[in-house]
């Protein structure tokens, strides 16, 4: 290997289909229809499903979650709520901080990402984790703590607005 290249790994279509099927199985198990997107490390769609009953608007958001997770190499929902709108606008609305996107990282290499949408943030994340778990050795980001506005425990702004008298 020279200074001009680095080693890389890539999620295959076969792997993406395994991720998709595992995510669908978990969504069925929790009784929540989902839109599930699986992308390669460049954020390009490899596999997608919109389960019967999943929200039509979640087609776009789940794909953006997967793309964001792959390209940022981090779970979605981890940016602080105070900056999420600015970052979304800076990325032409293709970046999202909605909870439910996970990079698929194996042996330190991001190989792709999976995301789910149509449930609560916690449900979306659980379905994405179930999908990622279909790839042996994938990091499931068990220590991830969401920080976005979608997490109902977060209040925007650190200071209350001044009261005018």
Description:
The chain is an alpha+beta fold and 165 residues long. It has a single domain, classed as Beta-Lactamase. The protein has 4 helices and 4 strands; from the N terminus they run H-E-E-H-H-E-E-H.
Short description:
With 165 residues, the protein is of the alpha+beta class. The chain is built from four helices and four strands; from the N terminus they run αββααββα. It has helices at 13-30, 58-72, 81-90, 121-132; strands at residues 35-40, 45-50, 101-106, 109-117.
Count of DSSP helices? 4
Total of domains? 1
What portion of the residues fall into strands of 2 or more residues? 15-25%
CATH architecture: 2-Layer Sandwich
> What is Rg?
17 Å
Task: Give me the secondary-structure topology.
Elements: H1 13-30, E1 35-40, E2 45-50, H2 58-72, H3 81-90, E3 101-106, E4 109-117, H4 121-132
Antiparallel strand pairs: 1-2, 1-4, 3-4
Helix pairs in contact: 1-4
Give the key terms.
165 residues, 4-stranded antiparallel sheet, PduO/GlcC-like, Beta-Lactamase, alpha+beta
């Amino acid at each position: 290997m020279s200074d001009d290249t680095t080693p890389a790994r890539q999620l295959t279509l076969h792997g993406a289909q395994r991720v998709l099927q595992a995510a669908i199985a978990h969504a069925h198990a929790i009784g929540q229809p989902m839109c599930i997107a699986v992308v390669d490390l460049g954020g390009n769609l490899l596999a997608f499903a919109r389960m019967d009953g999943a929200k039509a608007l979640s087609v776009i958001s789940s794909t953006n979650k997967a793309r964001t997770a792959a390209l940022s190499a981090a779970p979605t929902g981890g940016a602080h709520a105070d900056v999420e709108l600015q970052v979304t606008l800076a990325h032409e609305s293709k970046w999202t901080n909605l909870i439910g996107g996970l990079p698929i990282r194996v042996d330190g290499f991001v190989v792709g990402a999976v995301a789910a949408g149509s449930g609560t943030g916690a449900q979306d994340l659980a379905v994405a984790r179930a999908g990622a778990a279909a790839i042996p050795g994938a990091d499931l980001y068990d220590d991830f703590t969401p920080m976005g506005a979608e997490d109902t425990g977060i209040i925007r702004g650190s200071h209350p607005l001044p009261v005018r008298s």
